[in-house]
Each structure stands twice: as C-alpha cells, then as structure tokens.
Amino acid sequence: MDTFHALDAFAALGQQTRLQVFRLLIQAGKTGMSAGEISAALEVRQNTMSANLSVLARSGLIRSTREGRSIRYFSDMDGLRSLLAFLMEDCCGGCPETCQPVIDEIACGDRATPQATAMPAAKSSELKTSERPT
C-alpha cells in the first residue's frame, strides 16, 4: 500500500459511522451484512448509510456482492492487512521483539481483550450534539 491509499483508508475511518460500520463488518466475518442490516444495527438512515458504504468501498476497506436485489457487504481483510502492513513496514528497526507485543495485541483468539474487540456502546444517534463531528 502506498501513502495515497493509506491516507484514503484513514480518511474513511476518520468518521464515526464509517468506523462503526467497518468494525461491525469485521465482527460479521464471512457472512457479511446487507446495507439494511447495517443501518438497523447502527440506527442510521439508509441513504446516509449508502454514502458511508461507498466511501469505505472506495478506500478498499470493504467489498460487496450483489444478491438478487440486495447488496451484501464484507470487510476486506486484504485491505486491512495492507493498511496494517503499511503502518508496520518500518517498525522496530530490526528488533522483532519490539513489534511482537503490537502483533500479539491485534491478533485474533485468546490474546485479544474484550475491550479491544467490543463495539462501542454509544450509537451515533445517542451522542450529544456537541460530540458529533461536523
């Protein structure tokens, strides 16, 4: 991944709803979710969700497949892997033991803490007006 694509991915994740969508799709795994299911889960209007899904898809962080009249969305693990590889590309200065704690923290399985993997409790509709991004 080059700097331009990394910036695009970070910009996509720099908005609360899109970050929540991406985390939700990671949790959904291989089954993915329809746009309507995502909208309902996050209590976001479908037209707003459609715009957010488009931004995430253009950034390479999610992918979609058409199922009849519906579209199913999935996290794009290759896109996530590329973004993480970009971040870690020059890590540790040749000392792998420096990077290992970071790798252990983001790895799936028993090492991942519930706090790190849980969806945030607050939905965007529950935020105070002063907390909403402009």
Write a compact overview of the structure shown.
Helices cover 54% and strands 10% of the residues. The chain is mostly helical and 134 residues long. The longest helix has 13 residues, at 16-28.
Describe the structure.
Helices cover 54% and strands 10% of the residues. The protein is mainly alpha-helical and 134 residues long. Strands 1-3-2 form a three-stranded antiparallel β-sheet. Strand 2 (62-67) and strand 3 (70-75) form a beta hairpin. It is elongated, with a radius of gyration of 16 Å. The two termini are 29 Å apart. The model is unreliable at 111-134 (pLDDT under 50).
In what order do the strands lie side by side in the largest sheet?
1-3-2
Quick one: how many beta strands?
3
Question: How helix-rich are the residues, as a percent range?
Answer: 40-55%
First-last Cα distance: 29 Å
Q: Give a short account of the largest sheet.
A: 3 strands, antiparallel
Q: Please tally the helical runs, counting DSSP H or I stretches of 4 or more residues.
A: 7
Characterize the quaternary organization of these chains: single chain
**SSE order, one letter for each helix or strand:** HHEHHEEHHH
Q: Note the overall shape.
A: elongated
Q: In terms of structural class, how would the helical and strand content be classed?
A: mainly alpha
Gyration radius, rounded = 16 Å
- Poorly predicted ranges (pLDDT <50, ≥5 residues)? 111-134
List descriptors.
single chain, mainly alpha, elongated
What topology does this entry show?
Layout: H1 3-13, H2 16-28, E1 33-34, H3 35-42, H4 46-58, E2 62-67, E3 70-75, H5 77-88, H6 96-106, H7 114-117
Antiparallel strand pairs: 1-3, 2-3
Helix pairs in contact: 1-4, 2-4, 3-4
